[in-house]
Specification:
It is a single chain. By secondary structure, this protein is an alpha/beta fold. It has a single domain, classed as P-loop containing nucleotide triphosphate hydrolases (Rossmann fold, 3-Layer(aba) Sandwich), CATH 3.40.50. The chain is 42% helix and 23% strand. It has a seven-stranded mixed sheet, with helices on both faces. It starts with a strand and ends with a strand.
């Protein structure tokens, strides 16, 4: 059984950089990118994130079915999934909360089969409650998804302004 590290924190708190730093010296790293470039701003953000990754990282872009994307990868490899909040946002209009939580547990179990997996997600429980129902649903579901990841994680780091704090 492999190790799972979960990293959470606010937007632009240094989560992705920390995840990359944890695995930059590993031989084989798969980077599962979940964001979709739906506008210019997101396209630019994705471009910047790609530049942060070492060239030896193998990027797989998968916004919904991460488990299938992981199926044929060697278990002796390392995996980064960045970012769970985009994965949840991509699923929230297609699946029930129950299905998303079940998918999360299945993803955790799959990631634990790899040598080392690092999962990145935003923390949305420390901000204002959304003013619309979809936003509130997203906050609620992502909060529960993050809790599932923490329960499976061997280590949990919370990022504050680029500084990782080990919580678990």
């Amino acid at each position: 059984m492999g190790r799972l590290i979960f990293i959470s924190g606010g937007i632009k708190s240094g989560k992705s950089k920390f995840a990359i730093d944890l695995l930059k010296n590993k031989k084989k790293v798969y980077f599962i990118a979940t964001a979709e470039a739906k506008d210019k701003e997101m396209l630019e953000s994705i471009k910047i994130h790609k530049q942060l990754r070492p060239k030896k990282f193998i990027t797989i872009e998968e916004s919904l079915d991460i488990i299938s994307a992981l199926k044929n990868l060697k278990r002796s490899s390392c995996v980064i999934v960045d970012c769970i909040n985009f994965w949840v946002a991509n699923m929230i209009n297609h699946f029930s909360e129950k299905r998303i939580l079940l998918e999360t547990k299945c993803l955790c179990e799959t990631l634990k089969k790899f040598d080392l997996s690092v999962v990145v997600s935003n923390e949305v429980g420390m901000c204002l409650v959304s003013t619309n129902s979809l936003g509130r649903k997203f906050q609620k579901v992502l909060g529960k998804v993050n809790q599932i990841f923490v329960s499976y994680a061997d280590r949990f780091y919370f990022m504050f302004s680029g500084i990782p704090f080990r919580i678990k």
